[in-house]
Specification:
The structure is a homodimer. Chain A is of the alpha+beta class. Chain A has four helices and eleven strands; from the N terminus they run H-H-H-E-E-E-E-H-E-E-E-E-E-E-E. At the A-B interface, strand 3, strand 4, helix 4 and strand 11 of A face strand 3, strand 4, helix 4 and strand 11 of B. Chain A binds a DNA duplex through helix 3.
DNA sequence: GGGGTTACCGTTCAGGTGAACGGTATGAAC
DNA sequence: GTTCATACCGTTCACCTGAACGGTAACCCC
């Protein structure tokens, strides 16, 4: 009895579709029109059943408040949009999301961190950071203006290009180190601009 | 001139807040009530200005269609909710999101993969997979029922617990290998149940 | 001081909208 | 064959809602 019928599933999918494409839930009449119903009651019946089955919510008496309830609802947290830059030239992300080339959307619970206006993402090129288990193609999420702790991964501006390094405190002095035996650099941090501190990482299947 | 005034920002934030908390945009009168306006025109004026400045959209003539436009709008793709299991006992994720302990929400563009009902996430314990640059605390996203390719990371059921291994084809025969010199196991894949193939990974700051 | 912008008020109206009335047809279950 | 759930129709009503009318006050800029 708690199973959805074919028609009910169609209606649920349509409501979901509307929310995703236009961002707004359909009105009862719009649902009727879409399915060719000539009566409002038909829609009301379906909505009532879907609500009884716990897969749909609405605020009575108010327009367009239909909302599909997912089983994961109770776990879902806020989703943040983080701009993905191709490369960060000297300007730092002050002038904001103008030259973003993409967008990483992820919930803040999984990220373990509430993004700010100074949070951004970069795609990793090369394997200079395999020592920190970061590989080519990974997307790293960074926070600009954050004070790095010893051992943190940071993005630094080297030769007009963002490069990932490990931030180290050696006798109180900050240094940057590449995590790859082929590049055993150790650069005094003062000489460089630190663009951001790594706060997260996303990897997709190769 | 394209800057928002304090009042305009307040109204924009309120609209955003409504969408996030109740999932529905406020009506003009609800905005008026919230700010103590006794006239509808006040709200209409603000909405008109916010629309002119390109930070707000609405579908004329239809109720509750206010939508905040983000600068990242054009890059944003659909966000998928993936159940995060604490552990997967023998049953496999057939019985669905009942015993999920969390939810990973991420956009499908970043994930590089459109999740299905058989997609799930696991938290990595231990460093048996550091050879594949997967560390303790990482959240791996897996697809159940997918055929693994040579070298793919898979979750297998060992001693009633999900363990990550590398899937290898050795002279046509499938094997599972732990990516840690301390565990040089090489197990014929037939003896084990492969619960999923890794399709993504999320790491948060330690 | 005049013009432009912002920020409000009060009112009216047409139409969108949820909700409820009562009805029919179909198929599965017992 | 009766019962029940689903799936539709047609209509009406109150009120929510967007949109537009015209007006006032404050502020900044030139």
């Amino acid at each position: 009895m708690n199973e959805l019928t074919k028609r009910q599933r169609q209606i649920l999918v349509y409501i979901q579709e509307c929310q995703r494409t236009s961002g707004v839930a359909p009105s009862m009449r719009e649902i009727a029109e879409h399915f060719g119903f000539s009566s409002m009651t038909t829609v009301m019946d379906h909505v009532r059943l879907l609500r009884q089955k716990g897969v749909l919510e609405n605020q009575p008496g108010r327009a367009r408040t239909l909302r599909v309830v997912s089983p994961l609802e109770k776990f879902r947290s806020k989703v943040a949009d983080i701009p993905l830059y191709g490369a960060i030239p000297a300007g730092l992300p002050e002038d904001q999301q103008q030259e973003a080339k993409g967008c990483v959307s992820i919930d803040i619970e999984t990220l373990g961190f509430k993004p700010t206006a100074r949070t951004f993402a970069l795609e990793v090129r090369g394997d200079s950071m395999i020592g920190k288990f970061i590989v080519n193609g990974d997307v790293v999420i960074l926070e600009h203006g954050m004070t790095p702790r010893n051992g943190d991964v940071v993005a630094a501006l080297i030769d007009n290009e963002s490069t990932l390094k490990t931030f180290l405190l050696n006798r109180g002095k900050p240094f940057l180190r590449a995590e790859n035996p082929r590049y055993p650099d150790l650069i005094p941090a003062q000489e460089l601009v630190i663009q951001g501190v790594m706060v997260g990482l996303v990897r997709k299947r190769k």
